[in-house]
Amino acid sequence: MATVATRLFRKLEGLFCVYKPPGVHWKLVRDTVETNLLKGLNDTELRPVAREVRYMLSQSSTETSDAPKALTLSAACVPVLSEHPLVTGPNFQQIKVGVGHRLDAFSSGVLVLSVGKANKVLNDLHHTCVTRDYTVEGEFGVATDDFSNQGRIVERSTYEHITRDKLERVMAILQGANQKALLMYSRVDMRSQEAYEMAVQGRLGPEEKSVPILLGLRCIRFEPPNFTLEIQCLNETQKYLRKVVHEIGLELRSTAVCKGVRRTRDGCFTVHQALTRNQWTSAEVMNAVQQYRFIKNKRSTRALKDPELHVKEEDITTGQNIANIRDAVN
Predict the structure, then answer these.
(1) For residue 178, is it within any domain?
(2) Of 1, 130, 232, 279, which is the most buried if we count CB atoms within 10 A?
(3) Is 267 in a helix, a strand, or coil?
(4) Which residues are part of the catalytic machinery?
């Protein structure tokens, strides 16, 4: 018969996401979540210690001191020490918490984690072609050795000549070049019906590991020297996104550094579902895992009833950009 802690652990097995704050290494986030889950599992109600009947020897006292003392047997109900918590220790001494697409120490945002058997699912997800969304903040007029505002300043430049129209023109050229790279790695003719159907179903993408590819690039704030970009991409790293900001500054005949990288979506996990620091508890994680299972089962049911409605939300941006991709080819 499973204990309360074992039943709770089975409910924790699954995928969920947390919000990684900036300046914190992803390993520290994983270790903190793992420690909190262990504490929550071991604080559950323990099964009562089994008891057994033992016959104890005792000497009965006699009236005369010269007579030998008689040995008698007495029954006693005592706990089984081999099953006592002080002997066996905690129910769970370690659990495996897996980490999906990682974030470096200076980035923040959605970080997907897994518990128990879901680590295999997370490994498969890590090698799946899913898009991720980022909000990247930049600043014109400065260049550093590592493309971030934390690095050593190597150059300063003017930026008064930069306008929003010029910035959007450079981003359009950059996005067009990346869309051509997407076609090359997808190995699918964009003029075919197959390409359109793959894009609608969210399956248009590199068949294997490829270079970082930008699927979408949009300016959502322009207040010189500061600006904010919204980026959808594949196979990226945070260092690559900082380099993109640097290259945009060079194309505008200026310089630029990245002030912050924030992941807002990783596949089907969004920033609205991410657990903040005070929610990294067993109860909150269990609720997040159950919610993910419910959404996954609901999608599977809809896909079985009507395959035409099976559209992956995590890759819907690819379907929205199919017209732009065809224009880039032509």
Answers:
(1) yes
(2) 232
(3) coil
(4) 104
